[in-house]
TrEMBL record:
GO terms for biological process: nuclear-transcribed mRNA poly(A) tail shortening; priRNA 3'-end processing; siRNA 3'-end processing. Belongs to the CAF1 family. The lineage of its organism: Eukaryota, Metazoa, Chordata, Craniata, Vertebrata. It comes from Sciurus carolinensis (Eastern gray squirrel). One of its GO terms (molecular function) is RNA binding. GO terms for cellular component: endoplasmic reticulum; nucleus. InterPro entries: CAF1_poly(A)_ribonucleases, RNase_CAF1, RNaseH-like_sf, RNaseH_sf. It comes from the Eukaryota. This is Poly(A)-specific ribonuclease PARN-like domain-containing protein 1.
Amino acid sequence: LDIEFTGLRSSLSGPQQISLFDLPSEWYLKTRQSVQQFTICQIGLSVFSSVEGEFNKYVAHSYNFFLFPTTFGILDSEFSFQASSVQFLNQYGFNYNKFLKNGIPYMNEEQEKKIKHNILTGNWRVRSSLDKDQIKVVIDEVTRWLDLAEEGDRMTLPGIAGFQAFEVQLVLRQALPNIWTMLKDQGVVVKKVSQQHRWYLEHASCDRASCWKEQILLSARGFSVFFQMLVKAQKPLVGHNMMMDLLHLHEKFFRPLPESYDQFKQNIHDLFPVLIDTKNVTKDIWKYLDVLAPYVNQVNLIRAGVPKINFSGPDYPSIRPPILILTVRRWPGASEQQVYREFQNLCKFDVRRLTRSQFLLLTNKFKDARSILKEYRCHPTLQVSLYRYWRHSPNINCALQ
């Protein structure tokens, strides 16, 4: 599984930026905002099936889906583009026409409940003022045609496709009791019928209103139908650095991301009981598939206090390098940004202020921590040492005073 998005992460500043200091729950809450802001534009999926009669041999069937949020009735999503993501997609020849014009619709379960209720009860509305104007023109055109048409005559409304075709048919059928509509390749076909024939068509097994509306709902669900088939299959889901993929799958096809990090983990584990993130798997391990067991449901986490999330149980403790403490002397008013720039030529640290003259430093590389300790242990103005909670925490110092 591999997913492309219109953006990855909001340009948040200060405490809202993700950091190596973040607990998984903190990282989740920060990233949740970005997932709600951007949308999926493409999903790549390879399905592996065993070859009958062949031991340990598989055939891969690969598919590429361009997606676009469902816009029908009350559903009208908003999403953002991020310049860096657009540049990345351009670099690899992304086809925006297939995304924006021909993208497969999708919705999550909450959206599906709303639109299903509105479609089946007839309590729905046209999405925008532009659509209202277009539909008014269509009704006027059909009404003028009806004045001259005889029973059995037909007219075609060309250029109407997608969900607009469903909306036009719903409006026409509700507004005009002596017509019937059909969706053909060339557009929406309108036929003048008697009221008795109209009653028969509405109750015919092949075109009852309830059946017709169910077909509309099925079309509106689009790729969500396939997502539910994927969940039902309960097959192992493999991705690379797939945390953002899982967040978007939950938000766009299942339910809006919950505020609770633990609830998110439980939901994903229920949807996909077996996850394998190849970011955590080295090339040599693939030679022996039984060695993959420790990596199941361990999904890589980018820039946080732990390197991965365990979707089948409690998260493992951090194996990051130890936190360092920087004590600043003769540098009044030093800020986190200034401290970061001081060290950026040697290595990259996340910086967090502890007191007026002390800062916490954290990196994800042990060699960088050792290098800074050696370089700055006896520095005249910037002294770096290992952080000890019981010794350096302001909370402990206040309690002891």
